[in-house]
Amino acid sequence: TNGQGRGHDARRKVREQHVTPSPAGSVGSDDHAHRVLKSEFIERDNRKYFLDLKENQRGRFLRIRQTVGKGHGSMGYYGQGIEQTIVLPAQGLIEFRDALSQLIEDYGDEDADEHGRTGSRNRLDSPELPEAASFRVDNKRFYFDVGSNRYGVFLKISEVR
User: Fold this and answer.
1) DSSP-assigned letters across all residues of 86-105
2) Which residue ranges are recorded for the region named Disordered (predicted)?
3) What pLDDT, in 10s, does the model give residues 129-140?
4) What is the pTM of this model?
């Protein structure tokens, strides 16, 4: 593993305040009232994850953006590929971290190959997955649904206002 408990090809880059936290032209890249405290970038396969810890007049929050490249030459609504964003207020970060840590501890596979597939698990085996969970922060509710497919176990996070 690469010290993060995940696959070998995951790349992680830390970016400080002086670097633009989101790609130009993306949703939320023009938010002048938000001060970026710290940013990280993770790339795995055709997915890129941008984690931006920001602060505005209401407090601190974590913006998590995922972009999925559709391949060379294909353009989506926001440019190449598809993007999704979720914003967690600071009050929800501990619950988010705990839920994610528990998922990795229970279902992370140290033997995954470079594409995230497991070598030792039969594709027809269906791992017993935890029940969906949710928590409320301010006027938002966050749902955590664990699923699996041929590539492994994943966490789907939904934000409802």
Assistant:
1) EEEEGGGHHHHHHHHHHHHH
2) 1-32
3) 888 888 888 888
4) 0.61
